[in-house]
Amino acid sequence: MAETTENNPEQPDDEAQRNLLKKATEKTTSYAQYSSIAFQMLGTIGLGVWGGMKLDEWQGNERPIWTIVLSLTAIGASLYLFIRQLPKY
Amino acid sequence: MAQETHESAEHGEFNVGDMIMHHIKDEHGWELAHGLTIPLPVILYTQDRGLEVFSSSHIMHDEVYNGYKEHEGDIHRVTATGEIDESVKVWDFSITKNVASLLLSAIILLVVFFSVRNGYEKNKGRAPKGIQSFLEPIILFVRDEIAKPNIGPKYERYLPYLLTLFFFILINNLLGLLPGGANLTGNIAVTLVLAVISFLITNFSGNKHYWAHIIKPTGVPVALLPIMIPVEIVGVFMKPFSLMVRLFANITAGHIIILSLLGLIFIARNLGGTGTGLAVSPLVTVFALFMNGIELLVAFLQAFIFTLLTSMYIGSAVEEHHEADHGIGYEGADPHH
To answer: Glycosyltransferase: is it a keyword of this entry (chain A) (predicted)?
Structure first.
């Protein structure tokens, strides 16, 4: 982006607008990323719980052992996937 | 998309929930206003009768036509006495409101972009003209701000898809805001297809680093691999899943908010008579206009975000990996160290 601003030294308005656009783009990018991660966590946990319930139903378990194990695993997995997608500083 | 609701209120028994769902859902026949419905072709396939095509006007008001009847949006076979016959599986390939809107948007996109292409041929070496000069900054924005920084040096081969995606979502979001428009991008089947295409492109362009990270994440003890590999695989599927849900949820939620606001007028009328209804309508109009303005912004924003995230996912699949490029600092931030 630095090149584009250097190309227009005589147009401060244009430059300000470009910077504004750049900032807005950056903000939207991080918003998009984090909201995406939220949906991914929801999906992961949902998948774990659903899979667990199906397994318990299939095996006819009296105690919902698969639901417990898989939902807890899914919560861990969603946290892992969340941390992995954080920007690397 | 909501103006026609004024007419759809049945006196005395107005149900906001039904009104909202009616406007969000797909339908056979395109209702522009109460009493003004464009009939669309109904195309059915059943094993015993084969393919059948007729106009949706025949089955509009719960009428039975040719042994078929519409019940809560689905077409069922009925018996001689008029009961719904569940034993016959009806495959419905109708050109519904959403399909018609999809075809319309495809025509608009083709017309617009062929004219843009012709513009580049005619004005070669000169400044862009007309619709070409309106769309050029948007095309360049998708290229320079979305594709280039997120995909890297190989961005060019993905640009046709990313541009198509961007303008397809944008035009359908905007068409959905028109009075009488279809809620196409708020239909989960449509967003599912878009997400699946993004998923396929991402995974088919994945390089060895991308797959190595899934099959054997770096720095993970062997004992943990039976857990980590399924988790990584789930992660691969959850990315397009989040794309699908976000677009669907945002567009549908926006429509529901506007429709609920307009529904307030009828609720007020039912509670306190016509005077109350008239009294709240100016305020509701202001809110609804404001929400429409927000929706206009959301239409652009969601097209941008879908394209942005798709290019990020593609970028993560094609990037040449850290070790050589960024050194230790990068790896040190990896969570599994």
So the answer is: no
